[in-house]
Every structure is written in structure tokens, then in C-alpha cells.
Design a protein that fits this description.
The chain is mostly helical and 148 residues long. The chain is 86% helix and 0% strand. The chain is built from six helices and no strands. The longest helix is centred in the C-terminal third of the chain and has 41 residues.
Length: 148
């Protein structure tokens, strides 16, 4: 039951951001589905690993593959799908807790929460960056092979 609620929240959050970024029609649907898919992958990896950074990395890799494929299918920039679908992964709660600890002058808690936030964001950005570079290299290689 809790998983269904989490997936619904991920879908609604992605839908809200996609609508906010003025994504329309079919692209809105696929950007929203990407958010649900991303959070579903995160939860699936969490069943096998206790490391949240690994979960975020794997979810970001698969999210980027999804966004790259959808961008080519719909002839749209990748960011249309990538940004909206990445929303469920963003560590907003950890950032809030870090700022709350800072305001309460709990510097140990601030250090713990801010370190988690930064490392999770770094794992996401590493997954997105590595996948984007690899995907584009393979894509260009494939196009060169067809021209020869």
C-alpha cells in the first residue's frame, strides 16, 4: 500500500512540474510516466541495496536512458523529459532537514544532513552525466556506421 502511495505521489509531482514547465499533450503524459518510472526503479533497487546513493545512481541512469529515447521519439529536447521525471529523486526533504538543523544551531545534524544531500545530488548528477555522454557517443557511432 505504501509503495502505491509513493508512486502516485511521484506521478503527481512529475505531472505538476511538467505542467509548470508548460509541457503539453503527449509529452506531458510521457514526462509524468517518467517520474513514476524513476521512483519505481529507485524503490526496486532499494529492495536489493541499503545504499541510497546507489539507488539514486541507478535510477538516474535509467531515467536518462528513458529521457534520451523519448526525446528522439518525440523529436524534443531531452530536458523536457529529464527535468520532469527527475523531480521524485531530488533530495528536498534532506535539504529541508539540513536547513532546519542549521537554524536550530544543531551543527552535527546539519553536517550529517547536508552531506547526505550533497552526496545524493552528486550520485544523481554522475548517473545523468555518464549516461548522457555514453548514449550520445553510441548514437553518433551508430549513425556513422549507417553512412559507410
Amino acid at each position: 500500500m505504501q509503495t502505491a502511495v509513493q508512486l502516485t505521489a511521484a506521478l503527481l509531482g512529475s505531472f505538476g512540474f511538467a505542467a509548470l514547465f508548460n509541457i503539453r499533450g503527449e509529452k506531458l503524459i510521457f514526462a509524468t510516466l517518467g517520474g513514476g518510472l524513476t521512483w519505481g526503479i529507485y524503490l526496486a533497487v532499494a529492495c536489493f541495496s541499503d545504499n541510497p546513493y546507489l539507488c539514486g545512481f541507478v535510477a538516474s541512469v535509467l531515467l536518462t536512458l528513458y529521457a534520451e529515447c523519448m526525446a528522439r521519439i518525440h523529436k524534443t529536447p531531452v530536458t523536457v523529459f529529464l527535468v520532469a521525471a527527475a523531480i521524485p529523486l531530488i533530495p528536498g526533504a534532506a535539504l529541508y532537514r539540513a536547513m532546519n538543523c542549521l537554524m536550530q544551531k544543531d551543527f552535527v545534524g546539519f553536517g550529517t544532513e547536508s552531506t547526505y544531500t550533497l552526496l545524493f545530488a552528486a550520485s544523481m548528477s554522475a548517473g545523468i552525466t555518464l549516461t548522457t555522454i555514453t548514449f550520445r557517443m553510441v548514437w553518433k557511432w551508430g549513425h556513422r556506421q549507417r553512412r559507410l
